[in-house]
Design a protein that fits this description.
- This protein is α/β, with parallel strands linked by helices.
- The chain has 2 domains: 223 residues, Aspartate Aminotransferase, domain 2; 99 residues, Aspartate Aminotransferase, domain 1.
- 44% of the residues lie in helices and 15% in strands.
- The strands form 3 sheets. It has a 7-stranded mixed sheet, with helices on both faces. A 3-stranded antiparallel sheet has the order 10-11-12, with helices on one face. Strands 5-6 form a two-stranded antiparallel sheet.
- Helix 3 links the parallel strand 2 and strand 3.
- Helix 1 crosses helix 9, helix 9 packs across helix 10 and helix 11 crosses helix 12.
- The longest helix is centred in the last third of the chain and has 22 residues.
- It is globular, with a radius of gyration of 20 Å.
- The site of pyridoxal-5'-phosphate has 12 residues, from helix 2.
């Protein structure tokens, strides 16, 4: 192990930083947070919300953000759509026109329902409201496709370790725009552990506010080397191909998609149990007979859906193998 206040650590942070800026599509600093994604999701509320936050809600993770914002003592209101549907920029526009909000929360890829929200369109709408900041969770889409934080005008972009990046859980990454920092400066009660301005000050010295999970940062360094060795475009193409394999399988087997057409995730597929199988027994059998783990539906979707992931390190070979084993179990 290395110390976190010495040259070794600074060199480690220096090494990962430009690659992270490329993946985030920003020239702003990228921060290393020793917390799961929810730490940064909550921190974004503390650091940015003043008058009120509009929470775009279309599934378990995005719905929860409203609850979290209210627990932080903020004035928070929902923009709720049915699970399986996407967030429409026209509705965001309508809500922001009320003038009640200075912040918006959005989950790019809603992992519970397999919906991918139209980020560029929503960002275009936000551009009409220069006093509103946008917080975007890219936990399960990060590094699977191009998401240019600066070009899109995102004010906080965050991701966790264990989804798109396929690292062990308990760590996250985020970046903040100039506008985001300016807002944070005016906020009281930012605390210390998650104070964005403290992160910024420390990053300038290639350090973190408190002792980070250095093991995670070594793992991140190794992962970033893999990502850039494969090449970003090749990585994006791999995700597109493996996603298409799962989609073809859904169509061939006569199941249905839970997410509406045109807004389906590129990193996971939420399969609607339209054939009425016993999903829990099916997942159990897959685990016992093939040592493969799939999710039998999140929260209220348990048993009504199951989710097949093609994110992180999955390849055409591993995804094809998964689908073959599923076929064998379902026979
Ligand atoms: C998993 C997930 C989270 C929460 O991650 P934690 O590691 O539990 O904090 C947040 N957002 C999305 C979209 C997720 O998929």
């Amino acid at each position: 192990m290395i110390g976190h206040r010495g040259e070794d650590f600074k060199n480690l942070y220096r090494d990962v930083h430009p690659k992270l800026q490329t993946l985030f599509g920003t020239k702003q600093p990228v921060f290393l947070s020793t917390s799961s994604a929810w730490g940064v999701m909550e921190a974004s509320i503390h650091n940015l919300v003043d008058r009120g936050v509009l929470c775009c809600m279309c599934g378990a993770f995005s719905d929860k953000w409203l609850d979290v914002a209210r627990r932080c003592g903020k004035n928070a209101e929902p923009l709720q759509v049915d699970w399986g549907k996407h967030i429409d920029q026209k509705e965001v526009d309508h809500a922001l026109a009320s003038g009640k909000f200075d912040t918006v929360t959005l989950i790019h890829n809603e992992t519970s329902t397999g919906v991918m929200n139209p980020l560029p369109e929503i960002c275009c709408t936000l551009a009409k409201y220069p006093d509103v900041v946008l917080i975007v969770d890219t936990v399960s889409s990060f590094s699977a496709m191009q998401i240019d934080m600066e070009a899109l005008g995102i004010d906080v972009m965050l991701t966790g370790a264990q989804k798109g990046l396929a690292l062990p859980p308990g760590f996250s990454l985020f970046s903040v725009s100039k506008k985001g920092f300016a807002r944070a400066e005016k906020q009281k009660g930012r605390g210390y552990y998650f104070d964005f301005l403290e992160f910024k000050k420390q990053q300038a010295e290639w350090m973190t506010p408190s002792t980070p999970s250095i093991g995670h940062i070594f793992a991140l360094q190794s992962k970033l080397e893999e990502i850039f060795e494969e090449g970003l475009q090749a990585r994006f193409d791999r995700h597109a191909k493996t996603n298409a394999l799962v989609h073809d399988w859904v169509r061939c087997t006569g199941f249905d998609f839970f997410a509406e057409e045109g807004f389906r995730s590129k990193t996971l597929t939420c399969v609607k149990n339209s054939k009425g199988i016993d999903v829990l027994a099916f997942a159990k059998k897959l685990r016992e007979e093939h040592h493969l783990v799939i999710d039998p539906g999140y929260g209220k979707l348990r048993g009504k859906t199951f989710r097949l992931s093609n994110m992180g390190d999955e390849t055409e070979e591993t995804v094809s193998q998964l689908l073959e084993c599923i076929d064998a179990v379902l026979k």
